[in-house]
């Protein structure tokens, strides 16, 4: 676990299209001071309004995670948030010139590479964690999320699809920079061809292509080159979990066990987490030995 807050060393940028809007968007990540958190700024709007990446600011979770405050809406933040959290970045300003973040290749890989290229700056401020002392659980309609006490941030994720290509998959990772980069960041979002076609008919997924999602038709993957990991589907759910749980506002010391969860359910869990204040506290770690 890291003892100091971190930001990036130098500004970095990329551009791409929003998966739902189909609109081109330019994105820049810039360093930010201690206790700033991750804040999105809409540089295309008058006065460049901003919104902090926090679950209190979540306004929609139906297709993607959308945050908003005072005339500033930013959509599809989950994969970038996973990239920042996975790479242990606490403080950053993210500037965008459209409402939806670029989908890139449907994973957090391009964001992770970008953040890595920016370099990491250790800051003069202790990293503060949510430390889980007693399990907190949310169960509903066969979906469940429980967080258990642990001295690291660990995620165990299970998905169960009545589909021969996916079926039931479980994976379990302690999330640190190396594991995130190697095992999780490149896992892409996925969908079924009939769903994608339906979404397009309703004006959604306008930017969705085989370049930014794994698409399944019948019992085969349509993408050239197939899957990046044999269990890429569940690894992407871990990636989504990291992004969703990052909206808690600080790193977590605890073991998240999620089954059949998604953005909306993860968000509901965060609300429950904050109701159960007796089950956790906040802590910093002793400084690194000199
Ligand atoms: Zn996702």
From TrEMBL:
NCBIfam families: lpxC. One of its GO terms (molecular function) is UDP-3-O-acyl-N-acetylglucosamine deacetylase activity. It comes from Desulfosarcina alkanivorans. SUPFAM superfamilies: Ribosomal protein S5 domain 2-like (SSF54211). Its EC number is 3.5.1.108. GO terms for cellular component: membrane. HAMAP family: LpxC. One of its GO terms (biological process) is lipid A biosynthetic process. The active site is at residue 263. Belongs to the LpxC family. Pathway: Glycolipid biosynthesis; lipid IV(A) biosynthesis; lipid IV(A) from (3R)-3-hydroxytetradecanoyl-[acyl-carrier-protein] and UDP-N-acetyl-alpha-D-glucosamine: step 2/6. It catalyses: a UDP-3-O-[(3R)-3-hydroxyacyl]-N-acetyl-alpha-D-glucosamine + H2O = a UDP-3-O-[(3R)-3-hydroxyacyl]-alpha-D-glucosamine + acetate. Keywords: Hydrolase, Lipid A biosynthesis, Lipid biosynthesis, Lipid metabolism, Metal-binding, Zinc. This is UDP-3-O-acyl-N-acetylglucosamine deacetylase.
